[in-house]
Insulinase family protein
Amino acid sequence: MTTISRAASSLACLAFLLQVPVPSAAAQDASPPSTDAPAPAEAAPPAPVLQTNEEDPWLYRGSNIPHDKAWHFGEMDNGLRYAVRKNGVPPGQVSIRVRVDAGSLYETDAERGYAHLLEHMLFRQSKYIPSGQAIAAFQRLGATFGTDTNAVTSATQTVFKLDLPNATPTSLDETFKLMSGMVTAPTLSADNLKQDRPIVLAEMRERGGAALRVQNAMQETLYQGQPLAERQPIGTLETLNAATQESVRAFYKRWYRPDNVTVIVAGDADPAMLESYVRKWFGDWQAKGAKATPPSFGEPAAPKGFAGNNRELAPVGETRVLVEPDLPPSLLVATLRPWNQVVDNIPYNQGLMTDAIAQAIINRRLETRARAGGSFLSASVNTDKISRSADVTFMSVTPLGDDWKEALEDVRGVIADAMTRAPTQAEIDREVAELDVAFQVPVEQERILPGSQLADDLVNALDIRETVASPKDVLRIFRESRALFTPQAVLDHTRGLFAGTVTRALFTTQEEGKVTATALRDALIAPVEPDATARRVTNAEPVSFDTLPAIGTPAAPIADQPTGLLDIEELTFANGVKALLWPVAEEPGRVVAKVRFGGGTRSIAPEDAPYLTLGEYALVGSGLATLGLDDLDVISTGRKMGFEFTVDDAAFQLKAETRPQDLEDQLYLFAAKLDLPRWDENPLRRAKAAAKIQYDTFATSPQGILSRDLDYYQHGKDARFATPTPAEIDKATPEGFKRVWSKALAEGPVEVQIYGDFDKAAAIAALEKTFGALKPREDARSTASAPDIAAAQPSTKPVVLHHHGDPDQAAAVLSWPTGGGTLEIRESRQLEILTQLFTNRLIDAVREKLGVAYSPYVYSTWPVDLQAGGAITAVAQVDPKSVDVFYQTAEEIAQDLIANPPTADELARVTEPLRQQVTRAASSTSFFMNQLEGASRDPSRFGSVRSVLIDFTRTTPAEMQALAAKYLGEGNSWRLEVIPEEGSGSKVAAK
């Protein structure tokens, strides 16, 4: 069964954005209107009639899981199965998934990598798509490459994905035609193989480095003796280089056949019409020959001759140590059981629910131990069914300090206690309450679940050979099962989690000799005493909002006025707080509360920069009022509450998605964080340890170095945009943390946004007691003594940074400074069109020329809260010898954009996908409220929202040419490259 949640809605938003009348209730299932001139009316096709089998749908055969009646399931004479459903989120979109039941585990030894190679070749050329024209074909339909159009190959399946915006009968027919041609009649020629092979090999190179070495070592160790141990979807150099037209076609013929394919469609269209397209374009596809028998995936096996311990645990088998100097010490222990095809029925799911409660109790105890300080930074337990090869319980541990044995013993002690003595009913009730909320939210938000996720959930269910259920049925089954969640049942399931065929382990260490495979095995076998210290204290004083101190004297707003934008209202309080309220009935059960305060990055002194990073780790955990982090967990049990904290250029932000019944208390938590902060030191100590551990990991790849340093160089080496080094982290103190963040939390301005499903009067009453009761604050913009944020200066001499990853990896960056602020907001949006044009040209030039797998891309940043600091940035992952070629190519394209304006078709390939992106995004309140951040202090933002669609989609070739000339001229750019450091690599300790 599957549960999901997300939000989108509001045709009023679309009507406003598109400047058209709001449709009547009778018309609210229609696609959003277009701003283009009306097209000639299409001839109405005959009304299709559903041919699905509603009595015995293929997904539920043998299962007593209630059928999700929104899905309609069918089978065609050629064996192809399909499922279709109507879903209007976002309006006008149809999500199509074509799933092939074959991945890397279906390959022979000589075919390793073929499933993934075929994924590329199907996009290269097919019956209805000329060579290299797939991206352009789908862009003309409004689909963005990489976002709306994509594919993925795993060990067990290959899935082709398309989210078609603004779907019409004509565009749907064309889309099904193109996708059917890709899957049923690809052009698997020697020439196409020659073009795609370098791209796949480049992907292999770009995915290399420490992370891949750990992934490979994990697979080889944990699944030893099974195909999964050596069947990575990327394949091997030997097999890919040896691939021929004939061998690739043989793999395709074996697995790409209608009786091995499922088409899944969910979207804003009549299910009968969606079914008719499936039957029209896939119905004539015929398999040749008998269907191949899927290969055996094997089973985990215990080591021979094992005469180990007398525990109820699986015997310890293979252990391995991997030396990676740039990765934090980490331990992964896996208890494996054979994967068996289950009958996905109600008792099976009740067992999964009990397993989830057992895991949650253990993980809460482990987190309690970690928060208190001790031998490990983090530890967790989770179960998963891996690639239909093994049913696995994973135990992961990140030790603190050098004593990894103590960390392992402490974690094992908590688990041993959970296996020895049943949990208390109070512990069970707490986790049941958390699960109840997790299952209830999708019920409340069922109307706003997106079709793309519904389609993906069904794909995942097929992959693991299970079913899906409606959110209502999932919640009902869970609530009817509560009597089963007894202490003894949870104890039995806890023991079952760690029983199995064999236990295997991988330890990643920074220094050779610190850990050996033998020592690791001995530590796993050694007896351990149960540790009950992390069990919840059941006789502790209850934590309740009723006992918390008041923020201050409640105060009513002194002004409440409409903004003139949709139904958004602005409240003003005497203390200077302003609030934007937008109640929306179309987003049931979902409320977002957002608080922007203070001056953000620009208000922090450069010498205090490390506290920015530490604040993102530890500020929330430091507590508020009388509540520490554990208390915050307790007080939010059974509630939907959050505490997301982010640092922006010119403001700090707290955000949470909550529910109408939890909004008042959520607002209290946010206001108390500002006015009644608490300063627990343990979260800071843990944050310092985490920041230091993470720092070295950045050096493992070019992408990591860019994540660490690109912002720093783009902002003129401003320390506030640097990732603090371990030495800088060490210098941070609790006193310094309190000094910096006390000041930041006490500064204004304060802007509150509340939008979604809430009662306006109740929200205002809650604001009066919380943000209306805050003390007046100084404006950080007028009191800040920190220097302005700088920008990088143009230079043809590149900044050269080094990574410790594989010697054939590099990254190149070319960046042109632009601007910032709201006065030129239209220009910032037009830059998005320009960078998409740049990206398309760069893909055409670089991907084929250099064999780049992950397409080079160009993006624009424009800080609306600052008057400068924006940039156009081109990035590519390449091999080191191609860095200069990338620079040359990107500069040539930049100059060509100045010299030669885009063609009408080239412009349409960009503006139509952008139109659809904005239109879909505007079906949710979040889109508008994100645009309005800071609008209570800068009212021009209310006006600028009105032109957002026009600004992103309406332009001319001449305007693009002028914009390119303004920013992309010769001598305006600067460069950064990340190249390998000599001597990079890893070592593996002997087994």
In short: The first strand starts at residue 72 and ends at 75. The chain has four domains: 11-35+63-88+97-282, 320-525, 553-781, 799-980. The mean pLDDT is 91.
